[in-house]
Amino acid sequence: MEIWINPACSKCRSALSLLDEEGAQYTVRRYLEDPPTAEELEDVLRRLGLEPWDIARVGETAAVELGMASWPCDKENRGRWIAALATHPILIQRPIITADDGTAVVGRSPESVRSVLPPARPTTG
């Protein structure tokens, strides 16, 4: 499992705490320092079942400067959205968790973070 985080983000810190509490094995990717490529974004979007505009933070300064809020959300402009997210990773919603089973979630709530954890094994005693 990998989690894309911005350490300054409270939702990211909460997700990491929950993963630690659950004993999850994961790798941290500080995506502002190690930005995803367009190909990685395509893969994550496929796993999320979302489009690039669904994970874009259009209120960020960079998005406002680009005028992203007025960009069409359609097939013809999809590549433009992907390129903007790859060029300006601050625009990507966070945290994004990619699970070992091929699924992914935007982990903004405890429920979404828990949804990618493997089922608890019954304890025997």
From TrEMBL:
**InterPro entries attached to this UniProt entry:** Arsenate_reductase, Arsenate_reductase-like, Thioredoxin-like_sf
What family is reported?
A: Belongs to the ArsC family.
Record's protein name: Arsenate reductase family protein
Name the keywords, alphabetized: Oxidoreductase
Origin species, per record, is Microtetraspora malaysiensis
The organism's lineage is:
Bacteria, Bacillati, Actinomycetota, Actinomycetes, Streptosporangiales
Pfam families named among the record's database cross-references: ArsC
Q: Which SUPFAM superfamilies match?
A: Thioredoxin-like
